[in-house]
Amino acid sequence: MNVSFQIARRYLFGKKSTNAINIITGISALGIAIGTAALILIMSVFNGFELLTTSNLDNYNPDYKISLNEGKFFKLDTEILVQLESLPGVVSVSKVIEEVAHFEYNSKQQIGIMKGVDTHFNEVTDLNNALREGSVTLKGDNDQYFAVIGNGIYNTLNISLVSKIESLRISVPNRKKRGPLDRDFKTRGLLVSGVFSIKNEKDYRYIIIDYDLASGLLDLRGQVSALEVKIDSSYSTSDVEKSMASIFPEETYNIANRLEQEASILKIMNIEKWSSYLIFSFTLILIIFNVIGCLWMIVLEKRKDLSVLQSYGATKNMIRKIFLMEGAMISSVGFLIGLGFSALFYLLQKNVGILTVPDGFSITNYPMEMHVFDVLIVMITVLILGVLASIPAALRAAQVSAYVRME
């Protein structure tokens, strides 16, 4: 076994003549353990929220969404729609029209997005699985229209599904206004048939209504914001996507899969995750200063031993390696303790729920997912910082002169 490693291990775990060095060494390892656990747990929480977001996409986001690269609405040719529906692997296609709208219920108001969908929407998405109350009913008998709303809007406006007196009023700008006597907004009152929750910001933004009603309010009959497509899972997604691109060229249209539809949200979550990693890494750097002090004291205590080692033939490089390994060992011990603590906390959070989410959210406990990649990143970070912290002590140890016995 490497001599430098053996000596470094002896210096770390062996008894020191000064008890303060043992205490400082323990404090250094404990500080690194706390920093390690904090890093792993913070990254695990972000992983949990990302998994929560992506797992709920199946209930709302279609397999593919076709929209314009520039602009909001486009005229849909019936022939093109037939071509799309007849592509191998395409199961169903739903026409969608979206626009920002003003919602009002019993004097409470909110701005959100009105989404008009046709009868194929339930085939394209699994919104029924995301329902908290009621049903996905958009059009009843005698041309009576209903709305299905997000759970956030439902709570904000304090809407009652039972009441048949109060209705949800939807207002959009009047696109056909020609003079000062024309109304600025077109308004329609609807009863609410159901409430959905997909546990992200869409709960606070979206209201789903019938496509014909939405296109009439917007005076955009025959136009759509997007086409939402469901494909057969037995078909190759890349082949189906290429077939759709032959009808909707990428120069004009954007064909986004389920995850690409939420690219901005996932990107923000990823930025927040790695920003938190950097912040806690800087905190870990401050903790690492304890390692510098600890190693420096060990050098002062072991000066005689280092002189003897050199007199027996140890080189300056070997002396430096001893303290570089010493710093890596202290960091490794701290990392292993921190990993054990974070793993224990993770298991308790998953099975018991130590950290709870405040009332008003759709989840009760903070979601957590520990990834091996994140653990490896933290381990590399801790070891690199530990080795860097040991450089001053290693350089100082190499300057200790050789011990020569005088007869």
In total, the number of strands is 12
Domain count: 2
What's the helical proportion of residues? 40-55%
Percentage beta strand: 15-25%
pLDDT averaged over residues: 83
Main structural class: alpha+beta
Radius of gyration: 32 Å
H-E order: HHHEEHEEHEEHEEEHEEHEHHHH
- Described by the principal axes of the CA atoms, the overall outline is elongated
Are there runs of 5+ residues with pLDDT below 50, and where?
A: none
Descriptive account of the structure:
With 407 residues, the chain is α+β, with helices and mostly antiparallel strands. It has 2 domains: 3-56 and 265-398, no CATH class; 62-257, no CATH class. 49% of the residues lie in helices and 19% in strands. The chain has 12 helices and 12 strands. The protein has helices at residues 3-13, 19-55, 57-60, 78-85, 121-124, 151-156, 211-218, 237-247, 263-301, 303-311, 316-351, 372-398; strands spanning 64-68, 74-75, 90-105, 108-117, 131-134, 146-150, 168-173, 185-196, 206-210, 223-224, 226-231, 253-257. The strands form 2 sheets. It has a 6-stranded mixed β-barrel with strand order 3-4-9-6-8-7. It has a two-stranded antiparallel ribbon with strand order 2-10. A hairpin with a 2-residue loop joins strand 3 (90-105) and strand 4 (108-117). The mean pLDDT is 83.
Short account of what is shown:
The chain has helices at residues 3-13, 19-55, 57-60, 78-85, 121-124, 151-156, 211-218, 237-247, 263-301, 303-311, 316-351, 372-398, and strands spanning 64-68, 74-75, 90-105, 108-117, 131-134, 146-150, 168-173, 185-196, 206-210, 223-224, 226-231, 253-257.
